[in-house]
Design brief:
The complex is a heterodimer of chains A (115) and B (114). Chain A is mainly beta and 115 residues long. Helix content of chain A is 0%, strand content 49%. By secondary structure, chain B is an all-beta fold. In chain B, strands 2, 4, 5, 8, 9 and 10 form a 6-stranded mixed sheet that branches. The termini of chain B are far apart. The chains are: A mainly beta (115), B mainly beta (114).
Chain lengths: 115, 114
C-alpha cells in the first residue's frame, strides 16, 4: 500500500542546531512530495514542494529538502533552528504520475526548539 | 476569496445530533478536499472533488459521513448521528486542479461531540 512515514513523532533541538526531519514514502514511481508546517492554533502552510525539477528544493524560512529516489526519502533540513520554528511538520505525497491526486500525509513530527 | 474559508471555526454538539461543516474554496480552484485531524494525529483523507467528476469518497469512515459540492463553489460536510470519536478538526483544502502546486488549507472546524 502507498504510505508516507515520518520517523520520530517528536524531535527536540537546541536553538542554532541543525534540524533534520525524516520522511520516507513507499512507491516505485517518483511522486510529488510536499512539506507542510502547522504552527500552534494555525492552519497548514506549504513549506516546500518537489515536482520533478531539481532534487534539492528550497522553501520558506530557510528550510530545504532533498529528494533521493534510491532511498525513497524527502528529508527536511534547516542549518540553524530558531525558536520560531517550533511547530508540527507534515510530509505529504501525491502518488502516481498524475499531479491531480489526493495528498497522503505522514503522521507528523513535532519540532521543539530549546533555548 | 483570498483564502479557503471554513465555518464554523468551533462546534460543540451533543452525541447523536447531525452537524454540517462548510468550506468556501479559493475562487477558481477546481479541486476541493476534506481531511480530518484527530488530536495528536496526522491528517486523514476523507473526500475529494475535482470539477464535475464523481467525487473520490474512499476516505469517508462510515455512511454517517457525506459531502456535497455544487460546481466549483462551496462544499458542505455532513456528519449524521455524531459520535464522540468524530471529535476532531476538520480541514478543507482547495487547489487549482494542478495538485503539484500544493493545496491551500483553511483553518479548520474544531468539532467536539459531548
Amino acid at each position: 500500500a502507498q504510505s508516507v512515514t515520518q520517523l520520530g513523532s517528536h524531535v527536540s533541538v537546541s536553538e542554532g542546531a541543525l534540524v533534520l526531519l525524516r520522511c520516507n514514502y513507499s512507491s516505485s514511481v517518483p511522486p510529488y512530495l510536499f512539506w507542510y508546517v502547522q504552527y500552534p492554533n494555525q492552519g497548514l502552510q506549504l513549506l516546500l514542494k518537489y515536482t520533478s525539477a531539481a532534487t534539492l528544493v528550497k522553501g520558506i524560512n530557510g528550510f530545504e529538502a532533498e529528494f533521493k529516489k534510491s532511498e525513497t526519502s524527502f528529508h527536511l533540513t534547516k542549518p540553524s533552528a530558531h525558536m520560531s520554528d517550533a511547530a508540527e511538520y507534515f510530509c505529504a505525497v501525491i502518488f502516481g504520475s498524475s499531479n491531480t491526486g489526493k495528498l497522503i500525509f505522514g503522521q507528523g513530527t513535532t519540532l521543539q526548539v530549546k533555548p | 476569496g483570498a483564502g479557503v474559508s471554513q465555518s464554523p471555526s468551533n462546534k460543540v454538539t451533543e452525541k447523536g445530533k447531525d452537524v454540517e461543516l462548510r468550506c468556501d474554496p479559493i475562487s477558481g480552484h477546481t479541486a476541493l478536499y476534506w481531511y480530518r485531524q484527530r488530536l495528536g494525529q496526522g491528517l486523514e483523507f476523507l473526500i475529494y472533488f475535482q470539477g464535475n467528476s464523481a467525487p473520490d469518497k474512499s476516505g469517508l469512515p462510515s455512511d454517517r459521513f457525506s459531502a456535497e459540492r455544487t460546481g466549483e463553489s462551496v462544499s458542505t460536510l455532513t456528519i449524521q448521528r455524531t459520535q464522540q470519536e468524530d471529535s476532531a478538526v476538520y480541514l478543507c483544502a482547495s487547489s487549482s486542479g494542478q495538485g503539484a502546486q500544493g493545496y491551500t488549507f483553511g483553518s479548520g472546524t474544531r468539532l467536539t461531540v459531548v
